[in-house]
Amino acid sequence: MGCFTFTFANKKLEYNQYGCYLSKCKLGYGYRGYIALSKNFSTLYPDLVFNKEGYPFIKENYYDGYGMFGVHDIYDVVVDMNKGHLVEALNRLKIKGKKYNNLYYTIAKMLDDGMSDSDITTNVEKDCCNLNDRYLIIDWKRCLGIRLACYLEDNELLPYPLKVVSTLNCNYDELPASDSTQ
Questions:
Q1: Residue 102 and residue 129: Cα distance in Å, rounded?
Q2: Against a cut of 0.70, is the pTM above it?
Q3: Which of 40, 124, 141, 176 has its CA 20 to 30 A from that of 81?
Q4: What φ, ψ does residue 46 adopt, rounded to 5°?
Q5: How many angstroms separate the CA atoms of 99 and 90, rounded?
Q6: Would you write out the chain's pLDDT as a tens digit for each of its 182 residues?
Q7: What string of DSSP letters covers 58-88?
């Protein structure tokens, strides 16, 4: 599954003498954090919490490092937020010299075209014969999200990048993208 921590988009990034983020700048294991969302996504999931300005957030009370915020995988969330722009995002990565498996492009196109997650799973299972692609069958959405947003330079290319915050007192539209710190 992999372990991930993230910089807080609502805090000034500071570094130690080795060039690593200071712990106060990132979500640590066992701490509370939130995924900030644009107001466009106020109905994305039924369990969102809102700040007084009406911005939605996904809350995690005790972050365990596996990318889960409540019942939501952070990398599934980035895919859900960027539906309709996924092929475009992969093309931006390609222009930057990033390589990705063609199956990512196929999945992104299906999502952009409005296909349901269950139909995509069925199509991926049916069409995937390459054993090197088997991990994509098991967790295709998470794999696509990791490909799109695991690195800051990739996350920043998204129309709706991941933004992890330490408080509800912030506004998605005014925050920078978060960086994965592992």
A1: 13
A2: yes
A3: 124
A4: -75, -15
A5: 9
A6: 568 899 999 999 989 999 889 999 999 999 999 999 999 999 999 999 999 999 999 999 999 999 999 999 999 999 999 999 999 999 988 877 776 677 888 899 999 999 999 898 888 777 665 555 566 667 889 989 998 998 899 999 999 999 999 999 999 999 999 999 87
A7: EEESS--SSSEETTEEHHHHHHHHTTTSHHH
